[in-house]
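Lab manual, section 2.4: Encoding a predicted structure.

Procedure: take the sequence of the chain (319 residues), apply the prediction step described in section 2.3, and record the output as structure tokens. A sample record is shown.
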Amino acid sequence: MNLLKLRLSIIGTVAFIIGLSTLAFTILLTLTGAFNIYFIIIFVVVINLLQWVFSPRLIDSLYKAKEVTPNEQPKLHRMVDSICHKSTLKKPKIMLANIPLPNAFAYGSPRYGNRIAVTTGLLNNLESEEVEAVLAHEVGHLKNKDVQVMMFASVLPAIFYYIGFTFMLSSFYSGGRRGNGGTIIIGIAAMVLYWILSIFVLNLSRTREYYADRHAVNTVDDGARKLSEALAKIATSETKTMRKGRNSGSSSFKSLFINDPDTAKSDASTLSKYSGHLNDRELVNKILTKPVTGFDRFLELFSTHPNMVKRLKALQRIG
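Recorded output:
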């Protein structure tokens, strides 16, 4: 996906989410009393803002992430220093998450600042140059303000979910009273809008992953090769880790990760047996030969991250 298409996709997706939400709000406020709708909107927005502000503490607790100093992890700090300098971005805090899944994620809030976490599994499974490419990808998320963008985009589906839930609950408890049918219809319509908007939010998330990949290519020497090899090794390592039953609750904030652990098995299960016998380049090429079926494309609609084969092909093109 080239840069122009990426930008148009992001702008188009955000415009659609805002436009559809505005239209639906107008219809809902016309058909119902405004007080309840406004109360739900304010409630959802406040809850999401509080979640955003305090989420770093929750994420640190969930993934056992602790800040590491330059003395503890000098190589990590040197790499982040270099990448942030090239990106003209203030250096975030460097966190180490004590979980076996090889992955990394960027997060933060106005209260706690920006953070990049790498897992012990990532450091144990990847070479230094691959870790550097992964860090550049995560810095790209911070540079592009993806945490803020995705929080804003996720609020709108959440509002419709709670509107639908509230109206359907109200209909259930009101029994057979007059006007009950209209309440059910409004509740179902809000739930349908929730699912439609969620699909578009997931598409926005996948597009921003491509954008962060491009940032890694632009800020790291030979970044396309390094990131491709890192992603291939992460996918195959995740498959083996999950087969051992060591998921560690990774799905809770999977949109943060560089790769969606829930799709790792479908992305690389057929390749995990080769991971110990192929070098890094051969492993990437093996994944690239895997066809992207219609079923793969369907599953991708419900994923926070792009299909691995499509993602590696995109890296080959921009590299």
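Check your result against the sample. The radius of gyration is 21 Å.
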